[in-house]
Amino acid sequence: LRRQGAVVERPQHTGEALFRVEDTSVLKLAATLSEADARLIENGDAVAIEGSPAAGKVVAVLGSLDAQTRRVPLLAEIPNDGAPPLLAGSFVRATVTAGREVQALSLPASVIRPGSQDEVVIAQDGKAHLARVVFTSAADGSLVVRSGVTVTDALVERPGSEVHEG
């Protein structure tokens, strides 16, 4: 039985609670961010739910990493007044839009060193130098790099996995 945001359940065994009432008018989105991404997000930043008109805002970004996942917990509130309403407990894909601009470089995905998730090779003075980059993948497959390289760095495209420092 569902009535105005309340969920009513019947007990299965004697001694169990007869009812459970839930307020689903505002849902809480619990998510995690990488350490680099967490530095970009602030309370009040916009949150959109993919495939839904539902939208809300960030209400908390913890100031510490989760010990097991090494990620930063984030909490957002999403008003649940859309049609159809979101179901509490659902898994969703959300996008957080930071309230400020960030400098970034667009690079081809082929600059990432094979066998690595975030290393690129910079050619400098005839030597190879490895650099770790912080990036996000764009819709077209390219990399949007926020840190680790500059516009003046000469990157090696399609570096071999055997390339090492020096």
Helix content: under 10%
- What would you call the structural class? mainly beta
What value does the average pLDDT take? 86
User: What order do the SSEs take from the amino end to the carboxyl end, as H and E?
Assistant: EEEHEEEEEEEEE
Number of helices: 1
Distance between the termini: 68 Å
Backbone shape: elongated
**Secondary structure tally: strands:** 12
Rg from C-alpha positions?
22 Å
* Low-confidence spans: none
Largest sheet, in brief, is: 5 strands, antiparallel
Query: In order across it, which strands form the biggest sheet?
Result: 3-6-5-4-7
- Strand residue content: 35-45%
Looking at this protein, list some descriptive labels.
36% strand; mainly beta; 2% helix; 166 residues; elongated
